[in-house]
Amino acid sequence: MAARIAALAVVVVLVIAAIWLDGGTFDPAPASGIVPQPGETTLVAPVSALTEGELAPNFVLRTPDNEPVELAAQRGEVVVLQFWATWCLECRAEVPALNGIDDQDGVSVFGVAVGDTPFRVATAADDLDATYTMLVDPDGEVAAAYGATSFPVTVVVDPEGIVAAIVTGPFDPATLQEAVDAAGNPA
């Protein structure tokens, strides 16, 4: 009996040591979106609170395929930026509505995945059938510039590059569509 308890204790110690040494790099279910990765996730503190009517901070981020995308190059179109994470269930639930908005002429949607790897972002996008462009913000620097400290945060940018709407938390698809329409046809 004592030998069994000792063997069990050794197994428990080895499992704990393996988890500690792994440091959160092993993902048994890549991009499952159920829970955040083990280990510490630190995001860059927000630079400032972005408000409607301000010029949207320009950035260059890369797609999971390492293609650069610059916000300023999108001038002339309405741009929808959704700051999200692959583990965020509310973010994942919004993909179908964002797919529909991306299908519209003169509108581009970008999912800005914060604090994730290109592989996890690509896998999540495939799993969710996302049709819009995914971008990777591995250190959260762009999210910080936009004041996105929780997920999801959706920002609508008008064709001149001005922030037309900011939605913190899940969006109502009809309300987001109204914001996109208003940004494309300013009064």
**How far apart are the termini?**
80 Å
Helix content: 25-40%
What best-fitting shape do the alpha-carbon axes yield?
A: elongated
* Rg value: 20 Å
Order of helices and strands: HEEEHHEHEHEEH
What is the CATH topology descriptor of the domain at 60-184? Glutaredoxin
- CATH architecture identity of the domain at 60-184: 3-Layer(aba) Sandwich
Task: Present the secondary structure layout.
Elements: H1 2-22, E1 60-62, E2 68-70, E3 78-84, H2 89-93, H3 95-102, E4 107-114, H4 118-128, E5 133-137, H5 141-145, E6 153-157, E7 163-168, H6 173-184
How would you describe what is shown here?
The chain has a domain at 60-184: Glutaredoxin (3-Layer(aba) Sandwich). A five-stranded mixed sheet has the order 5-4-3-6-7. A two-stranded antiparallel sheet has the order 1-2. Residues 23-46 have low confidence and may be disordered. Helix content is 33%, strand content 20%. It has helices at residues 2-22, 89-93, 95-102, 118-128, 141-145, 173-184, and strands at residues 60-62, 68-70, 78-84, 107-114, 133-137, 153-157, 163-168.
Give a summary of the structure in a few sentences.
The chain is an alpha/beta fold.
